[in-house]
Every structure is written in C-alpha cells, then in structure tokens.
Write a structure and sequence with these properties.
The structure holds three protein chains of three kinds. By secondary structure, chain A is an all-alpha fold. Chain A is built from 23 helices and two strands. Chain A has a domain of 217 residues. Chain A is globular. Chain B has a two-stranded antiparallel sheet. Chain C contains four helices and no strands. The radius of gyration of chain C is 18 Å and the shape is elongated. Classes of the chains: A mainly alpha, B mainly alpha, C mainly alpha.
Chain lengths: 562, 514, 106
C-alpha cells in the first residue's frame, strides 16, 4: 500500500516538476542546484538556536527546493545527447583560468537527481536529538558540495567541492554520532584528506603539464584537457592517473584503503550514514569515470587490470567480512564495500554495458543502502542497540517494517525485478566481455550478498520475540513516508529502467569511444551493437539470471525454515 | 658611489658629496617610525590609564597611514617601474610595497589584540605599541633593502624590538624566559647573518644587492668557496628568523612564553620581514647561483614541513601546537623560495598575506581564551568552548581549518599556489611531501576543533567545562577577529585581487638613477 | 725569527676572525651563564668586524670599514636591550643560569 501511494505521489510530483522544468529552461538550473542548499545552510544557521522547529522547517524547505531543481534538471535534460548539457561558465579566478563551470551529462544526471532526492529523505528520516540548527546547516552545506562535485567541469572547482564536503561530514559525525564518533570522524577526515593531497598535486601537475605540452595558457577546464590527449606524455599521464586514483580509491573505498568506512558509517548519525553511503561514496566512483577514464584514457586502460582486481577483492572481502559482523549497521557498511567493488569492476571493464551498469548501480546503491541505513536507524531508535544478537523476532510486532526491510534488502542483493539487479547484471555482462574471470569471481559475490543479508534478516526479524523485543513498535506513518519514495524508486528502476538507461547510454558510449581514441584499447563488440541489441541481450539475460536469483532466494527460505 | 668619492677625495678639501635622499621613497618607514615617536611622546604626556584605548587606536591609525603611504608609491612603480633611492640602498618595487602592507596589517591586528590584553593583565603604557611599530619599521626595511647592511640594520631593528616585546609581561616568569631565549638565539643568528654578509662582501666586493647581482651575472668566480660559505651563513641567519628547521628550536618556547598578542605579531609581521629578506637576497640577488643554494633550501623546506607537522601532533599546549604548525607553514613558504621563479615569489607572497590573517586571528582567539594571567593554553582549556561561546569557537575553527587548507578559505589557495609553483619548477616530490605534511598537521587542527566541539550532545552533567566563567572578548579584539575571518574567507572566495597584486610584486633590483 | 720572515697576509686575519667567531659560537652553546653567553655574542660580532676590515683593505674599498661602525652601533643597542632583559630576570631570581630557565621545556 505504501508502495502504491509512493508511486502515485512520486508520479504527481514529477508531473508538477515537469511543468516547473519546462518553464525554467533559461534559469541557470545547475548553479541553482549548488547554490540553493548553500544559501539554505546559511539561512538555517541564522535561525535562533532556541527554535529548532523553525530551523527544521527552513532546512526542509531548502532541501526540497533543491530536490525540485534537480528533478527539473532531469526534465530539461535532452535524451540521446552524449555531450554536456545546460552548461554554465563564469570566470572565477582569472589568473588561473578557473571558472565556475558546470554541466551535466548522462553520467552525472542521475547522481545529481539521486542526491537531490536522498537529502530531504535523510533529513526527515534522521532528525537529530540536539542542536538541530547546526545539524541541518551542515547537512545542507554537504548537499551543496556533493552536487557541486557531480556538476563541476573544472578541475579546481571539482577539487574545492570534493574537499569541502569533508568539513560538514566531519562535524556531522563528531557532533551527532554514536559512542566512538570522535575517532571515526578524525579517521574519516584524515584518510580522505590524505587521498586528496595526492590528487591536488596530480591535479595541478595535470594543468601545468597540459599547458606546457600544448603551448597554451594554464587552464583547469576538464573538457579542454581531456580532449587534448597528446599534450601529456603517456608515462606521465599514468603517474597523474595514479595520483587521482589514490584519492578516489580512498573515497570509494577500494580494498586496501577502506578501513575508515566501517567506522565512519557505523558511528555516524542515521542521516550521516545515509548520505555517506548514498552520496559521498559515489564521489569516488564518479571521480573514476570523469577524472580517470575521461581525463586519462590511456592510463585508465593501462591500470584497468589492477583496478578491476581491487574491485573484485572488494566484492569478496566486503561480503566475507559482512557475514561475520555482529553489528547490523556495520554489516550494512561492509556490504557497501562489496557493492562499490562492483561499481569499480564495471567502470574499469570499459565497456558500454559495464559503465552503464556502474552508473545505474551508483544510484541503486544510494537508494538501497540509504534505505537500509534508515531502517537500521529506526530499529536503533526503538531498541537502542544494533547488536544482531539482541534483536529477535521483530517481524511479529512490526510486519510492515519487516516487509519494507525485505524489499530494500532484496534490492541490495540484486533480486530481478528490483533496481539492484539491473545494475549488477549490466556490470557482470560488461565485465564478462573484457575480464571474463574477474566477472566470474564477482558473480559469486552476488551469492554471498544474498547469504549475509538474508542470514541477518532471519536473525533479526524471524523467530519468537523475547521480552526485550516484544514491545517493538511498528513503523509510524512518518517513517513510512520517509521510506515510501525509496521503495517506489527501487521498484520503478527495477521494473522499467529504460528511461534511465536511455539517458545514460549516449554519454557512456561516448566515454568508451573516448578511451578507444586515447589508447590502443578496443571495446570488444557484443553480438551486435546498439540500443536494440542491448535491450535484447538484457531480456535474454534477465531470463537466464532469473534462475540464479531465485536460487539465492531459496537459500534464504531454507535458512528461515531452519 | 659616495664611498668611492670619499676615498678619492684624498688631501683635497672637496665637500663631502652626500647622496640625495628621496624622502618619498622612505615614506612607509618614516610613517611607522614617526608614528612610534608620536606615540611615545603622547604616551608620556597623556595619562597612562584611560578607558578608551587611545594607544591602540593610534597604532592602527599609523598602520593605516603606512598603507596610505604605499598607495602613491605603488602607482608610481606601476607606471614608471621600480626604482631605488638613497644611493641604491633602498629599493622601491612591488615586492617591498606588498610586504609593507602585509606588515602594516599585522601591526594593526596585533595592536587591536594587545589593547584588551594589556587591560586584562593590568599592564599599561604605550611602550608595546611603540616597540611594535619600530619592529614593523625594521621588517619593512628588510623588505625594501637593496644593500645587505641596510638589511642587517632592518633585521636588528625588527628583532631587538621584538626581544623586548617577548618579555613584556614582567610579572610572568615565562615571559622573561622567552625574552632571554629569543634574545640569545636571535643575536646568535644575527651574528651568523652578519658573517655571511662579510663573506659575500669579500667574494663580490660589495654589499649592495644590485652590484652583487651584476657582479655574479658578469663574472665567474675562480674560487666559489667564500661565496658559498656566505650563502650558507646568510641562510642560517634567515632560517632562524623565519623559524625553519633545523633553526627552529627557539620557536615553541618563545611562542609559548611570550604574550599571546605579541606572538600574533611575531608569527605574521616578523615572519613576513624574514621571508621578504630571504626572497630579496636569494631569489633576486643570488638567482644566478640558484643551483648552488636550491638543494639546501629544498632540504630545509622538507625538514620544516615534516618536523613542524609531526612534532605539532604530540603537543598538548595550544600555543606550542600553533608554534610547530607555524614551522610547517614556514616550510610551505620555503617551497615558493626554493622554486626561485616569479611563480614561486608570487606564491610565497600570497601565502604570507593569507597566513598573516590566519595566524594573527588564531593567536587572537588564544589571547582571549588565555584569560587573566595568559596561562590557560592547555588543550583542556578549550574543552566545550563551542558550547559556551559558539561564535568564538566557530571563528577559531575557521582559522584552524584555513590553516589546514580547507577549500574556500585563503589557506587552501595559499597552498594551491605554492604547490603550483613547485610543480612549475618540477619539484613534484616536494609538492607531495608538502601536501602530506598538511594532512598530518590537519590532525592537529582537528584535535583542537574536536576538543572545542566536544561535550555537545553528551548531556549537561558530563560537561567538564560547565562551571567555567564566560570569556570576555574585548571590543577591539572582536574587531580584529572579524577582520581576520572576513579576510580569510574573502580571499578564499575571491582571490583574484590579491593574486593579481602579488603577481605585480616580484622583486626587481634597480640601481639608483642619480 | 721564522715568523717574522713570513708576511702576514689577509688569510691570517680571516683565519683569526673565523677562529674568534667559532669561539664565540661554541661559547654561546656550551656556557650557561647568561652574561657569558651575552659576551660570546659580542665576540662573534667583533670577529665579523675584523673580517669586514680585512676585506675592506684587500678590496681597497672603504665600504667595509664603514660597515664596522654600523655593527658597533647595533652591538651597543643589543647590549642595552640584552642587559636589560637579563637584569630583569636576574633581579627576580639572583644567581640564575640558563639551566634555571626551564619552565619552557625545549
């Protein structure tokens, strides 16, 4: 019921937004998407400390308005175009040719929309217990930074946005987190900043060496540098790619530099975890696409085996460690590592399908893991524990919550018909073309995901509730409204991903072509190329995978019975 | 030239030909010294205690006057190019004028902080302000010196005044100790500097920077030993003044012991003077011999970056932390020096300008938190500051995050320009070391921020700082802090004006035309 | 006899001043009495003076000799300030040495 009402309401909203988007095609939408939350942050900060309710109102207003703007961007977006759209460019620092240069293409489009949607949800779902004003102000500032990262077409601007998000997140974790929050916040900040240190040097070197190689002036324009591949020697470009890759690998996080993630995710307040998993990890994977493949195609192709390997290690490692977790939130955190491993795999398979899968999987992971963190937050609110062993039989007293949890969890596992399947399948398909054995190993990760999530579900929700868990309250209407849009999107993307894929595809195909131009890498052709062929293969494979997905489900069922 | 005439005069009774003094070229220095004298006289005549901080206001006015005096000179340099005055002993170029403004700003901020400090500590009189102005005059002299001896005089004027300022708080033993330490090590380094001047004089036959530069460009020395030794000794002298490793050992002690507002001036104005001299002598004059001194400066920069960052982490006294972090920042500016290019100089100047606001502001907050007796500088004294005084904590957090190099603050751009200069000069590893050291020192800044924001959400009864009195922020100090925050954020958002000015401010050595 | 035969060249003066400078520098580092440390600084400055005069004579340039006057003035100023600071401390704690200045661990 919730699902349907969510669908209806989201349909209504999107209709209204369509009108807004059409009416405002001349408005600088992208600037608005970045500036609006920043203004909101200041406005919220100016509200009196004694009136947390008005702070909440102001913050909600601004974050919803930002969400409206991002959806307007979606509406204004021209399907079938590979290039950047709605480009805006204003000079910022003349001296360095740094510009406020924003643009959106198929790769960034849905990340922006997801950010716009997820923030209001996180705000509703994770209200703070104290000092609401600062909490919301930091959250809005974080939103501005995240959207800025996705839209920036200028290296300098990108770095500014990439770094600035650390500050609000640091304060969110250290101010409103759980017991071990100070340690987690510090670790998060230093890890990411260390990565950024490498990136800053690489970024400046890229601009300087490009200017020197091309004989032109210094510029930080991503498009200029990326389309002028000859100006940086291949060997140098590999070093530069590496410096960027370190920063993104920390942010994603890939296997050896992932250790900040479980701490940060577990200790962060619910809203912080949702944003951290849903949006901030994507800054890294998006960075790989835009500042890895696009900026250094040759180096990306050269490093692809290593990156794919790290991704696969992440998939297996995340899954195995998640299985052993006793803390529900930590389990979800480790599952993120596995999911992000998939995205890295798809990215560095460098095939149209793989990249499409990666992009859509970024959105899917934001929705499903964000949803899981919200649900874990709700459980913690009631029971003040996240220990799996302490929770038992919640299904009995909270069937709706159990249902929602099941759905979101299945989406995370990648059950056909839900959004997670589309992404994981495309990634596996794409990577199978270029990295067969890696794809095979990664596929076992899907099964492991089913294992640890269903096992956790079984322990938490099934069985007879003991006296501690007997009084577990059902989902409130408010909580239902928080989850409804997520559930709606999860189902919608799972059932009918075509509109999304259609918008992603041209940009992704252009990116693959760009990599082919810049290196001796050649994308192996699937049976046929083109949209129809993809559709066909997709349908075929869906039928084929149906069996394996079902098996995973049966495993779970078997477990439940035991 | 004059000296040559003197020597030739022989037994004749030719009148001594004194060089023409272009007073206008000296106007910033004259304003500072004149202001100091006026302040001294007024201070002697007027009652020593007054409710309104006349002394501080007058000092700020003098600093403003200095900046006003720079404006026509800047225009002239911009239109007609740099020139030098007083028989080529003082150069007027964009560089000296830029640094002059930075030093004047440092004086103004420090004076505003000093006012409240003196009242709180029950000290009185115009002397601190007078000394600060004189010290600033010395720093300006260093920045504009075209002669090593003039630079030495500037160095001494600057340093001697600051030795006294360090010992300003007579009743605090730490203050006296800081003064003695600073004095002994400072004069030690001055002697090294002077010996370096002597050796360079011996090797090149002149103490005038213009003539030295010409000599080095035109001649190849058969025996470079004397010159290189001179470089080394000069570097030691400058190294002490700018607090670079391994000449840094005085910094933490002196910063900890000296009165906090004075430290604000030491870390901004005095450092600016030291770096101005370093850039003028090494980059502008010894540029032709850069291959000889660049590796040494490279090493010093790396050491300063690493040692400053790492040792800062283990401190528990906020003033010592900031002292070590200032060593780290000195390492960053040395990267600009090491590049020995116009980009490097621009980056160093930008860094100095940005750092002046950040560090003066940070020590401004330290002054306020130090409370009566100027002794509450332990990390614990900052516990829960955000709860009691959210604005003060926010301001301090901004200064600290700016020093850590968070974007949209001046600190980020300062680091950015320095890294850019290093990369233009192909010092990739140096740039990398610098950025990694910035991460290490970010740990330290975050530690302070964390302590300040601790206690929020822990429930009122667990707040260890609940019983502490509210800190009084004097109006003058509040103005200084607001100005510093505005500049830190403003430069971070709109860096263009400052960058363009810094670009116009590379040192150029020009002989007097007379 | 042999010594008298050897002409005293500029190198001797330079050597002597380097030696004096070293004595001053080492003295400052090893002695603990503030006043003696202070005298060591003076020794260093005057060693430099000797260098300047030697070079002035070698180069036949009066500039080096003029420098000496500047240095003398600066040294005098340092004396005034330095003694002032040291006396200020000693008056409060008679018999202090540099080792007693230990509130600031360094």
């Amino acid at each position: 019921m919730l699902v349907s009402s969510g669908l209806v309401s989201s349909g209504l909203v999107s209709f209204v937004l369509g009108q807004v988007g059409r009416a405002s095609s001349d408005v600088p939408l992208l600037t608005a998407a970045v500036v609006l939350p920043a203004v909101g942050a200041i406005a919220t900060a100016l509200v009196s400390r004694r009136r947390p309710e008005s702070a909440r109102m102001v913050a909600t207003l601004f974050s919803v308005a930002t969400g409206v703007v991002t959806v307007a961007v979606l509406v204004a977006f021209e399907t079938g175009e590979a290039d950047f759209q709605l480009v805006e460019k204003y000079t910022w620092i003349r001296d360095l040719d740094v510009a406020w240069h924003l643009g959106v293409d198929g790769i960034s489009l849905f990340l922006v929309v997801m950010t716009g949607v997820l923030f209001p949800i996180a705000m509703f779902g994770g209200a703070p217990h104290h000092d609401a004003k600062s909490f919301y102000a930091w959250l809005l500032l974080l939103e501005a930074g995240c959207i800025g990262v996705f839209l920036a077409l200028d290296l300098f601007l990108f770095f500014v946005m990439f770094e600035i998000v650390l500050v609000p997140m640091y304060f969110l974790i250290s101010g409103w987190g759980y017991a071990n929050r100070r340690y987690a916040a510090m670790k998060f900040f230093l890890y990411t900043m260390l990565g950024s240190a490498f990136m800053l040097v690489g970024l400046v070197a890229t601009a300087v060496l490009h200017a020197r190689g091309s004989g032109g002036d210094l510029t930080f324009n991503v498009l200029t540098i990326a389309n002028d591949q000859g100006s940086i020697a291949p060997m140098t470009a590999r070093w530069l790619f590496l410096s960027f890759a370190i920063a993104f690998a920390v942010k994603v996080p890939l296997f050896p530099v992932h250790t900040w993630l479980p701490d940060a995710h577990t200790e962060a307040p619910t809203a912080g975890s949702v944003i951290l998993a849903g949006v901030m990890l994507k800054l890294g994977t998006y960075g790989f696409l835009r500042y890895g493949l696009f900026l250094f195609p040759e180096a990306s192709a050269w490093f692809a085996p290593a990156m794919v390997t790290l991704g696969v290690i992440g998939i297996i490692y995340g899954a195995v460690v998640a299985t052993m977790q006793r803390d529900l939130k930590r389990l979800v955190a480790y599952s993120s590592i596995a999911h992000l491993g998939f995205i890295a795999l798809g990215t560095f398979a460098i095939t149209t399908q793989g990249l499409q899968g990666s992009v859509i999987q970024m959105v899917n992971h934001g929705l499903s893991t964000g949803g899981l963190f919200l649900l874990v937050g709700m459980i913690y609110e009631r029971r003040h524990t996240r220990e799996i062993a302490q929770l038992k039989g919640l299904q009995a007293s909270a069937p709706i919550m159990a249902g929602v949890f099941t759905l979101v969890m299945l989406s995370s596992i990648g059950l056909p018909g839900l959004n997670g399947f589309v992404g994981e399948f495309l990634i596996l398909l794409g990577s199978f073309l270029t990295r067969r054995w890696w794809a095979v190993v990664a596929a076992t990760g899907v099964i492991l995901a089913a294992l640890y999530l269903l096992w956790a579900y079984q322990r938490v929700f099934h069985g007879e509730p003991d006296e501690d868990n007997a009084g577990f309250a059902e989902m409130s209407f408010r909580e239902g409204m928080v989850m409804a849009p997520l559930v709606a999107l999860i189902v919608f993307l799972g059932v009918y991903p075509k509109p999304v894929l259609d918008r992603i595809e041209p940009s992704v195909a252009a990116l693959v072509a760009h990599v082919e131009d810049g290196s001796d890498f050649v994308e192996p052709s699937v049976a046929e190329a083109g949209t129809d062929a993809r559709e066909e293969t997709f349908a075929e494979a869906e039928a084929a995978e149906e069996g394996s997905g079902g098996e995973g489900g049966e495993d779970g069922e078997g477990g439940e019975g035991g | 030239m004059t000296l040559g005439l003197l020597a030739q005069a022989g037994d004749g009774v030719a009148p001594i030909d004194t060089p023409g003094v272009a007073w206008s070229a000296l106007s910033p220095i004259l304003v500072l010294i004149g202001g100091a004298i006026v302040l001294l006289v007024v201070g002697a005549l007027a009652p020593r205690r007054s409710r309104i901080g006349w002394h501080a206001m007058l000092t700020v006015a003098v600093a403003g006057g200095t900046i006003a005096a720079v404006v026509p000179l800047w225009d002239r340099v911009h239109d007609d190019g740099p020139y030098s005055a007083v028989a080529s002993a003082v150069g007027v170029d964009g560089f000296s004028l830029f640094v002059t403004v930075v030093i004047a700003v440092a004086v103004a901020i420090a004076a505003l902080l000093t006012d409240g400090y003196l009242r709180r500590e029950g000290l009185e009189g115009p002397e601190p302000y007078v000394l600060m102005l004189l010290s600033a005059a010395g720093a300006v002299m260093m920045a504009s010196a075209n002669d090593l001896i003039v630079m030495f005089l500037g160095l001494e004027i600057m340093s001697i005044a600051v030795y006294v300022l360090a010992g300003l708080h007579l009743r605090r033993r730490r203050s006296g100790e800081a003064a003695v330490k600073y004095f002994v090590l400072g004069s030690f380094s001055s002697a090294f500097f002077l010996y370096g001047v002597a050796l360079v004089y011996g090797a090149t036959g002149s103490t005038n920077l213009v003539r030295i530069a010409r000599f080095l460009a035109a001649n190849t020395l058969a025996d470079q030993g004397l010159l290189i030794a001179g470089f080394a000794l000069l570097l030691v002298g400058f190294g002490f003044k700018v607090a670079a490793v391994p000449f840094h050992s005085w910094t933490p002690d002196v910063y900890q012991g000296s009165p906090s507002p004075i430290v604000a001036f030491m870390a901004s104005g005095v450092k600016a003077g030291g770096f101005a001299g370093l850039l003028r002598v090494f980059v502008a004059t010894f540029g032709t011999y850069r291959l000889d001194w660049q590796p040494v400066v490279y090493g010093i920069a790396v050491l300063s970056l690493v040692v400053g960052a790492v040792l800062a982490v283990v401190q528990t006294d906020v003033k010592r932390m900031l002292a070590y972090s200032s060593i780290n920042h000195a390492g960053f500016i040395l990267i600009g020096v090491q590049a020995a290019t116009d980009e490097g100089v621009t980056a160093a100047l930008f860094y100095l300008a940005a750092y002046t606001f950040m560090v003066a502001g940070a020590f401004g907050v330290v002054t306020v938190v130090g409370r009566r007796g100027d002794g509450h500088h332990h990390l614990d004294d900052y516990q829960g500051l955000a709860r009691r005084q959210p604005l003060l904590a926010l301001v301090f957090a901004i200064f600290l995050l700016a020093q850590a190099g968070v974007p949209l603050t001046s600190g980020f751009l300062a680091k950015f320009y320095v890294v850019e200069a290093a990369i233009e000069a192909r010092s990739f590893w140096l740039a990398l070391v610098a950025m990694v050291s910035a991460v290490v020192s970010a740990f330290l800044y975050l530690r302070i921020v964390l302590v300040m924001y601790a206690g929020a959400g822990d429930g009122a009864d667990t707040d260890p700082a609940a019983g502490r009195p509210r800190l009084a922020v004097p109006a003058a100090a509040a103005i200084a802090l607001v100005v510093a925050v505005a500049a830190t954020i403003g430069i971070g958002l709109v860096p263009d004006p400052l960058t363009r000015t810094a670009r116009d401010a590379t040192p150029e050595l020009v002989a007097a035309s007379d | 006899m042999i010594l008298a035969a050897t002409p005293i060249s500029a190198s001797w003066y330079l050597g002597l001043s380097a030696l004096l400078f070293t004595v001053g520098a080492v003295g400052l580092l090893v002695r603990r009495n503030p006043l003696v440390m202070f005298m060591c600084v003076e020794l260093m400055l005057n060693a430099v003076n000797l260098t300047f005069v030697t070079f002035a004579r070698e180069l036949d340039d009066v500039g080096g000799q003029v420098v000496v006057f500047f240095v003398l003035v600066v040294a005098a100023a340092e004396v005034v300030i330095g003694l002032g600071i040291i006396v200020g401390i000693l008056r409060r704690r008679p018999g202090a040495t540099a080792d007693d200045l230990s509130l600031l661990k360094g």
